[in-house]
Write a structure and sequence with these properties.
Blueprint lengths: L2 H21 L4 E6 L4 E7 L4 E7 L3 H5 L7 H17 L6 E3 L8 H12 L4
Parallel strand pairs: 1-4
Antiparallel strand pairs: 1-2, 2-3
Helix pairs in contact: 3-4
């Protein structure tokens, strides 16, 4: 494991430990960002289930976007995952940004989820 991956793994572990303390058992909105797409899941860690998910790979989202790797795509994915989470009965989550900084596409996804009705 190279130095960057070690740093990312430590950052992710530190963040997840903090989320367990602060989250009080709320589901977490987890984000994965690749170079071409962005993915989001609402996960219930108590049951080990994914309650809602969305990504820029979905056909309905792809048709309205120029690319899956920009802020517009991230905002659309955030709104879609919020819509699906509300349908599953989830209104409050904790935001799990993983090893990513809260900036750019990750921030746009969070803003889209807030616009869609999730609170965190």
């Amino acid at each position: 494991m190279n130095k960057t991956k070690k740093i990312d793994a430590r950052r992710k572990a530190r963040l997840r430990a903090r989320l367990r303390v602060v989250g009080y058992g709320r589901p977490r909105l987890s984000v994965f960002r690749s170079s071409k797409h962005i993915y989001a899941q609402v996960i219930d860690d108590r049951q080990g289930r994914t309650l809602a998910a969305a990504s820029s790979l979905e056909r309905a989202l792809r048709e309205g976007l120029k690319t899956g790797a920009d802020r517009a795509a991230a905002t659309a994915v955030g709104k879609k995952v919020a819509e699906r989470a509300l349908a599953a009965g989830v209104t409050r989550v904790v935001f799990d940004r993983g090893a990513y900084l809260y900036h750019g596409r990750v921030q746009a996804l969070a803003d889209g989820a807030r616009e869609g009705g999730l609170s965190f």
